[in-house]
Amino acid sequence: xxxxxxxxxxxxxxxxxSGGDVSFTNSALFMLLSALTGLGLVVxxxxxxxxxxxxxxxxxxISYEFVEGIVRSNAGHEGLPFVPxxxxxxxxxxxxxxxxxxxxxxxxxxxxxxxxxxxxxxFIMVTLVGLLKHGLHFFSxxxxxxxxxxLMPLMIPLEIISYFIRxxxxxxxxxxxxxxxxxxxxxxxxxxxxxxxxxxxxxxLLGILPFALVVVLIGFEFFVAFIQAYVFALLTVIYIQDALxxx
Length: 247
What we know:
Structural class: mainly alpha
Order of helices and strands: EEEEHHHHHHH
Helix content: over 70%
Strand order of the largest sheet: 1-4
C-alpha cells in the first residue's frame, strides 16, 4: 500500500452549506478526540482534588507544572497568564501525536494546513499582545539597535521578513517531522509484509531486520511525538516573551 495513503483526508459525514463543503472528516474526528482526551485528563484529574493524588491527578498536575515551568523560565512572572493557553496547545498536540501512533488512526499534525492554522493562531495572538502592551512602539522591534542608519533600509525589511516567517517555521517543523516519521514506519512495515508474503520461510527470516527497525522507530516516534509538542509550546512561549519584553 502507498505509504502516503495514511495521510488521506476523507469525509465521514458529508455536510454542504451554501454550496460549500464543510464535511466532518477523519481529521476533524481525531482533532476532537485529542481535545476531549486532554479535557478528560484535566477534568478527571482535578475532580477529586485528593491530598494524596491518584495516577490521573498526578498526571494532570505534572503536565500542568511542566508547562508552567516552561512559561516561568522563559517568559517570567508576566507570562503566567498565558499558561492555560500554552497548556491547552501542548496537550492538544501531544495527544494528537500519540493517538496517531495507534494503528488505523489518523495523525492530524501530519497535515500542513492544521499546523499552519495553529501557528497562525499563535502568531496573531502574540502580535495582538505586543500591540496591546506597547502600542505603536511595538513596531520599533523591526528597527535593530546599534545598526548604522545607512544599513537600515536593508535591516528593517530583513527584520520584518524574519518576524512574519515565524508561523512558517513553526508549522513546517511539526508537520515535516510527524509526516516523515509515519512514512518511514509505513515503508519498513511494507518491507516486512513483502518479504513474508513473497519469500516464505526465508522471507520471515529476512524480515527480522526491518521488524527490529520498526520497533526502534516506534519507540523513536513516541519520543518525537512528545518533543514536537514540547518544541511548539516552547517556541510559543518564546514568542510571547518577545512580545511582552520587546527583545
